[in-house]
Design a protein that fits this description.
This protein is 1% helix and 41% strand. The N and C termini lie far apart (67 Å). The protein is globular and about 65 Å long. It has 443 residues and is an all-beta fold. The chain has a domain at 326-442: Cupredoxins -  blue copper proteins (Immunoglobulin-like, Sandwich), CATH 2.60.40.420. The strands form six sheets. Strands 9, 10, 11, 13, 15, 16 and 18 form a seven-stranded mixed beta sheet that branches. Strands 12-20-19-14-17 form a five-stranded mixed beta sheet, with no helix packed on it. A five-stranded mixed beta sheet has the order 22-29-28-24-26, with no helix packed on it.
């Protein structure tokens, strides 16, 4: 008898609502080291195959391609990135997951890279985790969509896995002639295409009873996306570059806002020569994005490994003192001229900060989305806890990015450990939605 699975077709609201259920925890800080890892990239025109059987599309890409094996670093190294900007406009690098890197904050502390120029950007990789960066902030008027990248900072003692694979998903809006348009342009009469590591599909090789670690990264411009790994017991190990106590992904499903990273582990328990699809869902119809392709060889071991323990602790505080915390209310999605949020070309420390806080004090932000559509919120320099409704506890994971449904209010808390001027970003999930900014100071 053939058993048919019920198709994975969550509503758009279900996709949005589920986001709060998946996030992870980090890795212990290390003593300063002098080891430097140098990499070079060039942001330039390139072609990408986005339409099977059709001519390739001209896009902006980082070259050479970011080979995953060359973009794995050790905790404690400093990444020195030499980046050449061969586009026609100024670009800024925006790093996700870099706590305590005030000098790398774009627009406030770090100047952009002018067209035709090369500059070096250095970031200290003090904690293990999955990292994300993009060249889109402050470049919303670009003629083509700008790219992003992801890389891995390994734990000092990595967990036992047979494969460790990074999966960077990007979205593309194509006109009927195959032109890729930039966010902010009208998406009328366009089709949406997703790539995984720059390809329309991705094959993940496996052998029966291997353990796999997959690092999903939502590199989409605006889209919230969901994944389902069918036929496997998937466990979430980390979110936004921070470890969490392992927990099962319900029915193998994961939901990610733009910039979110989720690490999962699972054992390849299907028979040799099996194939399982990884489906992507954006609130429309499920699309195959990757395939687990089992070798016909005998299992790599007789039985699966025992359940994986939690990843090494990141060194974030075990508790955030909420009594005596500095409490701030923020509204996002407020229409001009009442809005305090500004576009990238206006953000500056000459503007009044959203708040100032003394180093070492706890902060509780009550954030309300007053827009008619969902909005993502991202904070620089600090991971935060999502508080329970009565402020009597928090969800058991750390985040640096959070999705708000229309009309929703959430409370988050963090310990202001890192002095500096830090950005906060708010961005609607619609293709034409602007990215708006505020800043705060830890003194």
């Amino acid at each position: 008898m053939t058993v048919r699975e019920r198709p994975f077709r969550p509503s758009r609201r279900a996709v949005l609502a589920g986001l709060g259920a998946v996030v992870l925890s980090p890795n212990m800080p290390v003593k300063a080291q002098t080891t430097r890892a140098r990499r070079s990239l060039r942001l330039q025109e390139a072609t990408l195959r986005l339409r099977p059987g059709q001519p390739e599309t001209m896009v902006w890409r980082f070259t050479p391609e970011m080979d995953a094996n060359n973009w794995v670093f050790r905790r404690g190294e400093t990444l020195e990135l030499d980046l050449t900007n061969a586009t026609g406009s100024l670009i800024n690098l925006n790093w996700y997951g870099q706590d305590n890197s005030a000098g790398a904050v774009p627009l406030l502390a770090q100047a952009g890279i002018a067209a035709g120029q090369t500059a070096t950007r250095a970031v200290a990789l003090q904690k293990a985790g999955t990292r994300f960066f993009e060249a889109r902030i402050g470049s919303e008027g670009a003629t083509r969509p700008l790219p992003c990248g992801a890389f891995v900072v390994r734990e000092t003692t990595p967990p036992e896995v047979d494969r460790d694979e990074l999966l960077l998903i990007e979205d593309w809006r194509l006109t009927p002639d195959g032109t890729a348009i930039a966010p902010g342009e009208s998406g009328t009469d366009t089709s949406t295409v997703y790539t995984i590591n720059g390809q329309l599909d991705w094959i993940i090789a496996a052998r029966t009873n291997q353990r796999l670690r997959l690092r999903f990264v939502n590199g989409c411009q605006r889209a919230v996306i969901a994944f389902r790994i069918a036929d496997h017991d998937v466990r979430v190990m980390a979110i936004d570059g921070v470890p969490t106590e392992p927990f099962p992904a319900r029915d193998g499903r994961l939901i990610l806002a733009p910039g979110t990273r989720v690490d999962v582990m699972f054992d390849a328990t299907r028979p040799p020569a099996s194939r399982s699809q990884i489906l992507l869902h954006d609130g429309t119809a499920p699309r195959p994005i990757a395939t687990l392709s089992y070798s016909a060889d005998a299992p790599v071991r007789d039985t699966p490994l025992p359940p994986a323990p939690a990843l090494p602790d990141s060194g974030l505080p075990a508790r955030i003192p909420l009594q005596g915390a500095q409490r701030v209310e923020l509204a996002i999605g407020v229409p001009a001229p009442e809005a305090d949020w500004v576009a990238a070309d206006r953000i500056s420390t000459h503007l009044a900060p959203a708040f100032r806080v003394k180093r070492g004090r706890s902060v509780v932000l009550a954030i309300s989305n007053r827009a008619a559509t969902p909005v993502t919120f991202h904070i620089h320099g600090h991971h935060f806890r999502l508080l329970d409704r009565l402020d009597d506890g928090w969800k058991p994971f750390w985040l640096d990015t959070l999705l708000f449904d229309a009309g929703q209010t959430q409370r988050i808390a963090f310990l202001a450990e890192h002095p500096g001027s830090w950005l906060m970003e708010a961005m609607g999930i619609e293709w034409t939605a602007p990215r708006l900014l505020r800043w705060f100071a830890v003194e």
